[in-house]
Amino acid sequence: MPQPSWHPDSLAARLPFLRRRARLAAAVRAFFDARGYLEVETPYAVAAPGEEVHLSAFATERIAPDGARTRLWLHTSPEFAMKQLLVGGAGRIFQLARVWRNGEGSDLHAAEFTMLEWYRPGATMDDLVAETHALLRAVLPPVVQCRGVRTELAAAERLTVAEAFARHVGADLLATADDAPALAAAAGVALRAGETWEDLFFRLLLERVEPRIGHDRPTFLTHWPAAQAALARRDPADPRVAERFELFVCGMELANAFVELTDAAEQRARFVADRARRAALYGDVGWPLDEAFLSALAHGMPAAAGIALGFDRLAMIAAGAPRIGDVMWLP
Q1: Which residues pair with 120 in a beta bridge?
Q2: Distances in whole angstroms, Cα of residue 141 to Cα of each of 121, 147, 157
Q3: How far apart, in whole angstroms, are the C-alpha atoms of residue 230 and residue 48?
Q4: What was the pLDDT predicted at 33?
Q5: Which terminus of the chain has a lower count of CB atoms within 10 Å, N or C?
Q6: What is the DSSP letter of 208?
Q7: C-beta of residue 257 within 8 angstroms of C-beta of residue 305
Q8: Binning pLDDT at 50, 70 and 90, where does residue 286 land?
Q9: Start-to-end CA span in the chain (Å)
Q10: What is the number of other CB atoms lying within 10 angstroms of the CB of residue 195?
């Protein structure tokens, strides 16, 4: 029978990783403090936890002194709340936030984990790529090794999603947008029953692209198809793609970043479409649209770029830990 995580032998085995995690948190705070960022805290229990189609949230309840009950949810990201602070004029902000995503658990996933998010008014995607690379170099050694992959941090690779599909899948991704049979033919795979273009896109991304990037050096995978824009704005130079990137280090996805969408009407339309897709796949979400966030966006959010980085995975890389539970005090 496995030892409980509090057992002295179990804790002693993780303690070197956990000490490295503590030093990493201090280094992250020093990095942002030196760059004029303000550390913030936003609520964890919220009326609307997020709108990502495939994420499942934890439900909870607030009981008021008069006995009134309000259903709340543990947030899947502090993004909506932090953007409200941008509208209010908070300027450059960051947060080391606990977040919850129900149904997740593996060597790289935990249902409760720590997210490092930061937002920089006026920043472009180039600015955010450069700053993220600078963070890696500031808080990690020049060469890291994790889960059998060795990565040198001195230089990073930038690759658009379309370039990655051309190189590793052999398909012209943008030419086949929304045409699942055409993408399957270009990739030389059979289209599965009921498989949509989005389903096939992610299958090819997971099977052919992600295993081949972010190994010898960090890879910034940029300019995602517009259908995968999430909360990113479309690229003014090419509306077929969005100003979004993901970062891969030691073969692991480490971060997801956007040049932020600031158009409240377009954001509402995307939320409505995402909720319809979620309802078709999983049933009603159980929470309302985040009207507080949409109201703030309509008031006027400054142009900004922001990023969500998995702090526990960063700690794994810093410590060379093979599992996410190794860098958690009580996994």
Answers
A1: 305
A2: 29, 16, 18
A3: 16
A4: 98
A5: N
A6: I
A7: yes
A8: confident
A9: 16
A10: 16
Tokens of 33: 């403090």
Residue entry with tokens 């020049």: 142
pLDDT of residue 142: 98
> What is the architecture of the domain spanning 8-156+217-327?
2-Layer Sandwich (3.30)
What is the rounded distance in angstroms from the CA atom of residue 100 to the CA atom of residue 110? Answer: 8
Which residues, 6 or more positions from 65, have their beta carbon under 8 angstroms from its beta carbon? none
Q: Is 151 helix (H, G, I), strand (E, B) or coil?
A: strand
Contact at 8 Å (CB) between 173 and 187?
Answer: no
| Burial profile 280-303: b = 16 or more Cβ within 10 angstroms, e = fewer | eeeeebebeebeebbebbbeebee
Q: Quick one: DSSP state of residue 260?
A: B
Query: Is 204 in contact with 180 (CB distance < 8 Å)?
Result: no
- Asked whether the whole model's pTM tops 0.85, one would answer yes
Q: Are 87 and 121 in contact (CB under 8 A)?
A: no
Q: Of the candidates 12, 11, 19, 4, which has an alpha carbon nearest to the alpha carbon of residue 320?
A: 19
- The model's pLDDT over 56-65, given as tens digits with 9 standing for 90+, comes to 999 999 999 9
CA distances from residue 221 to 125, 160, 224, 242 in whole angstroms, order as listed = 12, 5, 8, 12
Q: How far apart are CA 162 and CA 224, in angstroms?
A: 8
